């Protein structure tokens, strides 16, 4: 975004700080296209990345592929990381900063895929959904959420709600794509309707490939569920369901990773100080639960 020629930021009524941010964004965009570094998220600002494809995966979510300036450029990301984006929705001079978690294999060069759920009135998600192939989105820097250590736990439980699946999917990929990592996993994926199950093909493929190590249970909260297969349950993520699926908290070789809407996280870990939520009632200590 540039100001009209010969018009100063003061004349245009734009705060100097915003002009500074825009100038820095522009410079770093140019920088990212000229630097020899082969890691897009390797340090400094990543810059503008071009949207290659944008595909609706259900009624409110799109999968968007952003290509790197060079096809052999690496992501520079490690498990589990998100990337901070800056959007300038129409009419907005101040950037809207929002993190998103790549769902493409972070070890693949050339691009990243984001899975973005659109919220009604959501500033960044509405802007990102409006992008067309060839448009650019500005990426600031990576945010490291968790450093995964292969074989640290014998078994882990992953509990996701809706679009909260993305960091858990990145972790699942990191584990199952590494032949040296033998960690077993149970994924409990809570959704409103069956249509809201994201990455279903990817999960089914992993289940076929790793039947002894990767178990998945979908729990659908609307009453409309028709699927009668054993991995489908009705309702929310409840204490009874987790009691059935989780290994005992006393087996020290286990951990729970959680990412979902605030109401779900509150129910599972407690809302107020001192409350332990469902996981606490099942004997899981705070150290045994990681919230993305
Ligand atoms: C580390 C991290 C990783 C993330 N990764 C992803 C990802 O891979 N994919 C993805 O789609 N999102 C992801 N998010 C969420 C994302 O960063 C934004 O918060 C989301 O896209 C909404 O931003 P917005 O500007 O569109 O909405 P806003 O303008 O901030 O909010 C608009 C409305 O939507 C509601 N709303 C906003 N966010 C949520 C929410 N999470 N749950 C329920 N209601 C909400 C608000 O209450 C408000 O009413 C991640 C968040 C974090 C912290």
From TrEMBL:
Gene Ontology CC terms, in alphabetical order: mitochondrial outer membrane
Gene Ontology BP, a term: ergosterol biosynthetic process
A Pfam family this chain is assigned to: NAD_binding_1
Reactions this protein catalyses: 2 Fe(III)-[cytochrome b5] + NADH = 2 Fe(II)-[cytochrome b5] + NAD(+) + H(+)
InterPro entries in UniProt: CBR-like, Cbr1-like_FAD-bd_dom, FAD-bd_FR_type, Flavoprot_Pyr_Nucl_cyt_Rdtase, FNR_nucleotide-bd, OxRdtase_FAD/NAD-bd, Riboflavin_synthase-like_b-brl
Domain of life: Eukaryota
Transmembrane segment boundaries: 12-31
Record's keyword annotation contains Transferase: no
Domain FAD-binding FR-type intervals: 44-149
Subcellular compartments: Mitochondrion outer membrane
Keyword RNA-binding found: no
Binding-site residues for FAD, renumbered to this chain: 98-100, 115, 117, 123, 125, 166
Any one Gene Ontology molecular-function term assigned to this protein's record: cytochrome-b5 reductase activity, acting on NADH
Keywords on record: FAD, Flavoprotein, Membrane, NAD, Oxidoreductase, Transmembrane, Transmembrane helix
Topology versus the membrane: Single-pass membrane protein
Enzymatic class: oxidoreductase
UniProt similarity note: Belongs to the flavoprotein pyridine nucleotide cytochrome reductase family.
Annotated protein name in UniProt: NADH-cytochrome b5 reductase
């Amino acid at each position: 975004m540039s100001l009209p020629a010969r018009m100063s930021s003061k004349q245009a009524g734009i705060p100097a700080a915003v002009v500074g941010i825009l100038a820095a964004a522009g410079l770093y965009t140019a920088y990212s296209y000229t630097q020899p570094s082969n890691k897009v998220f390797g340090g400094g600002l990543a810059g503008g990345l071009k949207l290659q494809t944008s595909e609706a995966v259900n009624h409110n979510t799109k999968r968007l592929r952003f290509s790197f300036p060079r096809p052999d450029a690496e992501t520079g990301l490690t498990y589990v990381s998100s990337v901070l984006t800056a959007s300038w929705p129409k009419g907005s001079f101040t950037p809207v900063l929002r993190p998103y978690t790549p769902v493409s294999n972070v070890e693949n060069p050339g691009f990243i895929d984001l899975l973005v759920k659109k919220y009604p009135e959501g500033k960044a998600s509405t802007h990102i959904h409006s992008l067309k192939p060839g448009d650019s989105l500005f990426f600031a820097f990576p945010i490291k959420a968790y450093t995964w250590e292969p074989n640290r736990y014998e078994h882990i439980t992953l509990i996701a709600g809706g679009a909260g699946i993305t960091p858990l999917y990145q972790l699942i990929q990191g584990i199952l794509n590494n032949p040296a990592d033998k960690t077993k996993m149970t994924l409990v994926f809570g959704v409103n309707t069956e249509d809201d199950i994201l990455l279903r093909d990817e999960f089914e493929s992993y289940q076929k490939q790793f039947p002894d190590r990767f178990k998945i249970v979908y729990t659908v909260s609307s009453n409309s569920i028709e699927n009668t297969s054993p991995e489908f349950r009705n309702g929310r993520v409840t204490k009874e369901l987790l009691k059935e699926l989780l290994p005992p908290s006393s087996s020290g070789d286990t951990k729970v990773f959680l990412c979902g809407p605030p109401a779900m996280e509150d129910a599972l870990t407690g809302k107020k100080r001192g409350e332990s939520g469902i996981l606490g009632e099942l004997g899981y200590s705070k150290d045994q639960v990681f919230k993305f």
